[in-house]
Amino acid sequence: MTHSIPKPVLPFAATLSALLAVSAVVRAEEVKERVYECHRGGQVVFSSEPCGPDAETKTLDYAEPGRSATKEAIEAAQQEDTQASVTAQAELLDTEIVNAQNEVERLRVEQKERIYAWRQTMAEGTDQDDFNAWQAQMDAKLQAIETSYAQQIEDAEDKVDQLRSQRAALGSSDPGQR
């Protein structure tokens, strides 16, 4: 009867270490890629194969950045995101300001048209026996038109002022102030 001697665990550990080392080397090679840069018709072209006699070899390194580079990249991205957000808010407010100014102008024109139309009606006169009562009704209606539009215009102008204040808080000028 033959007895076999158990193999020591150490060769397995050495083999595992060797595999991990090879794996790390392979991964390191995987994060670097060679590309070729060529110039064709005034444009830059990149290729995984040489793309012409003027091909320049470039190595792209996808290695994981260090902690400080990552922190700087995060801060830069946050700053860009903040700036993009401010720019988007400014553009939105600019549009709202223009729309509110257009609303003020629309109300003014509409008010003038309604007053003109009402005065035309008054100029045509009436067949009623009591002209003074009719005149008082017409004047009251005209006053109501003027008052109603004046309030709407004031509210729209207040909205323009509010939007301009919000826009000024973001910086730069708004389109209504140019």
General description of the model:
The protein is mainly alpha-helical and 178 residues long. It has two domains: 10-64, no CATH class; 90-177. The chain is built from three helices and three strands, in the order H-E-E-E-H-H. It has helices at 10-30, 67-124, 131-170, and strands at residues 32-40, 43-47, 56-61. Strands 2-1-3 form a three-stranded antiparallel beta sheet. Strand 1 (32-40) and strand 2 form a beta hairpin. Helix 2 packs antiparallel against helix 3 (131-170). The longest helix is centred in the middle third of the chain and has 58 residues, at 67-124. It is elongated. The termini are far apart.
Count of beta strands: 3
Q: What is the beta-strand fraction?
A: 5-15%
N-to-C terminal Cα separation, in Å? 104 Å
Low-confidence stretches: 4-22, 25-29
Can you list the strand order of the major beta sheet?
2-1-3
Count of discrete alpha- or pi-helical segments spanning 4 or more residues: 3
Radius of gyration: 39 Å
Structural category: mainly alpha
What is the string of helix and strand elements?
A: HEEEHH
Helix content: 55-70%
Gross morphology is elongated
Mean pLDDT value: 79
The biggest sheet, with number of strands, parallel, antiparallel or mixed sense and barrel status, is: 3 strands, antiparallel
Count of separate structural domains:
2
What oligomeric state best describes the polypeptide chains here? single chain
